[in-house]
Amino acid sequence: MKSLMLLSVSLSLARASSLQERDCSHDNCLRAVIQSGSEFCSAYTATPTITSLPTWATACTSPSTTSQILSACSCLPTPTSTPRIPTIWLAGDSTEAPGGGHNGTEGWGQYLQYSFPPSVAFVNNSAYAGRSARSFTREGRFEAIAEKVKPGDWVVIEFGHNDGGSPYPAADDNGRADCPGAGNQTCPTVYANVSEIVLTYPTYLKDASEMYLSLGAKVILSSPTPDNPWETGNYSYTPDRFTYYSWLSVTELGGPSAGVYFVPHGQYAAQAMKNLGPEIVDANYPMDHTHTAPYLADVVAQSFVLGLKCGTSGLGGLVSNATARLEGSVLGTCILANGTLPI
Ligand SMILES: *[C@@H]1O[C@H](CO)[C@@H](O)[C@H](O)[C@H]1NC(C)=O
Ligand SMILES: *[C@@H]1O[C@H](CO)[C@@H](O)[C@H](O)[C@H]1NC(C)=O
Ligand SMILES: *[C@@H]1O[C@H](CO)[C@@H](O)[C@H](O)[C@H]1NC(C)=O
Ligand SMILES: *[C@@H]1O[C@H](CO)[C@@H](O)[C@H](O)[C@H]1NC(C)=O
Ligand SMILES: *[C@@H]1O[C@H](CO)[C@@H](O)[C@H](O)[C@H]1NC(C)=O
Ligand SMILES: *[C@@H]1O[C@H](CO)[C@@H](O)[C@H](O)[C@H]1NC(C)=O
Ligand SMILES: *[C@@H]1O[C@H](CO)[C@@H](O)[C@H](O)[C@H]1NC(C)=O
C-alpha cells in the first residue's frame, strides 16, 4: 500500500515501471482527482458511466476522459482499513453478571476481560441477575445485544440457574421457568397479565443463536456453573439437564461448522473447585450455594477460558494465555469430550 508521499518519492527517484504503466505523473487531471478525494473515486470506479462528472474533469482527456480518470483514481492510496476489534457479548444470570448475586458476590463475566488484551477483544457483560433463558428473552435482553452485534463478534450464552420448574400451575409461574422439555414443546400462559407462549430452554437458546448467526456473529453455548460441589462435605458434581440442553442445542444448530460451539463450563469450574478443596470453596460461597465471592468468580472465569482453549472455536485462539499456563493444579487439564460432544 503506497502513501502519496511514497508515491512522489518513488516518482522523483526512478519512476518505477509499474507506476509508469499506471501513468501517475502529476498532471492537472491527477491533481484534481487527488483533491476531490477517494470517495469520488470509489463511486466513479464502481459505475463510471452513471457518475456525473465534476467540472475539473475537463482536465482529463487523454486518451479519453473516462480512462484518464480511472487511471488517476488507481494512483490514489487505498485507505488503510484497520480490522475491527470484536466484542464478546455475555448473556447469562447472576453467576456471570456484574455484581453477581449482590452482597459482595461477583459474576465470573467480570473477570473474562483479563484473558483478552484490549487490542484483541472487548467483553460486554450483559448478563443480568435473576434471569433465565425465558425472562432474558421476554425482557428483550437478547434483542438488545443483537442491536449492537457486528459481524465477527462472539456471543456467549449461559443459563440454567433460574430455568427450572414449570410455568404451570399458572398461579405459581415465576416468569422464569421454561416450558419443560428438550424439543419444541410450548406452554401457553398468562404472566403479569400478558399472554405468553413459554418455550423450552433449547428453543430459547437456538432462537437467540440463530439471530446472532444471521448477524455474522459466532455463538458459544456454555453449561451453567456448579452449585457448591462441596456442600455435603464430600465432593459431588453431576451436570444438570441444562448442560445437556446446551450441548443438544449446539448439535442441532450444526455445531462448529455452523459457527456454534459448546463449552462444558460447569464441568471445568467443578474440576477447579475439586482441586481447590472444601475449605477454599466453602469460604467462597459466602451467601448461598450458587453465588461466588470475587476470588472464586475469577477462577470460574479462568475455567471458562481453559474450556475455550481446549475447544476448537476461534475465540480460544484470541486468549492471551497459553494453554500450558492455564492447565495446572487449580484449573486442571483439558476435559476429554465424550464421543458425541461437538467441541
Ligand atoms: C443481602 O444483604 C442484605 C443487606 O445486608 C440482606 O438484607 C439480605 O438478606 C442479603 N441477602 C442474602 C441473599 O443474603
Ligand atoms: C453492553 O451491552 C448492552 C446491551 O446488552 C448495552 O446496553 C450496554 O451499553 C453495553 N455496555 C457497554 C459498556 O458497551
Ligand atoms: C415439533 O417436533 C416434532 C418432533 O420432532 C415434529 O414432528 C413437529 O413437526 C414439530 N412441530 C413444530 C410446530 O415444529
Ligand atoms: C393484573 O391485572 C390486575 C387487574 O387489573 C391488577 O390488579 C394487577 O395489578 C395486574 N398485575 C400486574 C402484574 O400487572
Ligand atoms: C463422605 O464420604 C465418606 C466415604 O464415602 C462417608 O463415609 C462420609 O459419611 C461422607 N460424608 C458426608 C458428609 O457425606
Ligand atoms: C456424551 O455427553 C452427552 C451430553 O452430556 C450425553 O447426552 C451422552 O450420553 C454422552 N455420550 C456418551 C457416550 O457418554
Ligand atoms: C491470563 O493472564 C492474565 C494476565 O496475567 C491474567 O489476568 C488472567 O487471569 C489469565 N487468564 C487465565 C485464564 O489464567
TrEMBL record:
PANTHER family: PUTATIVE (AFU_ORTHOLOGUE AFUA_2G17250)-RELATED, RHAMNOGALACTURONAN ACETYLESTERASE. Residues 92-241 form the SGNH hydrolase-type esterase domain. GO terms for molecular function: hydrolase activity. The keyword Hydrolase applies. This is SGNH hydrolase. Belongs to the 'GDSL' lipolytic enzyme family. Residues 1-16 form the signal peptide. Keywords: Hydrolase, Signal. It comes from the Eukaryota. Pfam families: Lipase_GDSL_2 (PF13472).
